[in-house]
Amino acid sequence: MRIVKTGLIALAASFAAGTAAHAVEVKKEAEAPGTPESVWALVGDFCAIKDWHPAVVECEQVDEGGDTFRILTLGDGGKIKEKLTDKDDTSYSYEIIESPLPVKNYSAKLDIDEDDEDNVVEIEWEAEFDPADGVEEDKAIEVITGIFADGLAGIQKKAKEADKAQ
């Protein structure tokens, strides 16, 4: 009887793992004028998002226990707390710690890279997450895709303004 019970428990656990929700990936790309360094100078500071993302009206950067966080205030008053997890010369990665967004287990990367054309960069913003409890996957994808599209348009606008000023 013990062997049968153990086998059934293992089978049930295996079935549950096989049907568990999978992480969702969203990736958006855009091009903008400039070099990776010039565009990164506009967007690379962790709190620069307030300067290029239309939904963000304020950003406060804080250090806690050796980690860097940003607290974003949105136009509707909502707040998002994000933790910087990695940074190099033209990219950074972060996780959402607290948020009103319909996602959980969210990690993302913003990357600026050279394009094949002269004076053009490729901007890539990608995230992996699970829909929040009770939220349809399509709704979570729609929200994050919209956030990325608005942000990339904001980066393109800033890069075009900087390029014209040169």
- Which architecture would the CATH scheme give at its second level? 2-Layer Sandwich
Number of strands: 7
| Helix proportion range | 25-40%
Which spans of ≥5 residues are poorly predicted at pLDDT below 50? 1-20
Strand content: 35-45%
Order of strands in the sheet with most strands = 1-7-6-5-4-3-2
Global outline: globular
Average pLDDT works out at 89
Number of domains: 1
Rg, rounded, reads 20 Å
What oligomeric state do these chains adopt?
Answer: single chain
The CATH homologous superfamily is termed: START domain
What name does CATH use for the topology?
A: Alpha-D-Glucose-1,6-Bisphosphate, Chain A, domain 4
Order of helices and strands: HEHHEEEEEEH
- The CATH class name reads Alpha Beta
Number of helices: 4
Q: In a nutshell, what does this entry contain?
A:
The protein is of the alpha+beta class.
How would you portray this structure in words?
The chain has one domain (22-165): Alpha-D-Glucose-1,6-Bisphosphate, Chain A, domain 4 (2-Layer Sandwich). A seven-stranded antiparallel sheet has the order 1-7-6-5-4-3-2. The protein is 36% helix and 41% strand. The protein is built from four helices and seven strands; from the N terminus they run αβααββββββα. It has helices at residues 2-19, 36-43, 49-52, 137-165; strands at residues 24-33, 56-64, 67-74, 79-87, 91-98, 103-114, 120-131.
Task: Give the topology, please.
Elements: H1 2-19, E1 24-33, H2 36-43, H3 49-52, E2 56-64, E3 67-74, E4 79-87, E5 91-98, E6 103-114, E7 120-131, H4 137-165
Antiparallel strand pairs: 1-7, 2-3, 3-4, 4-5, 5-6, 6-7
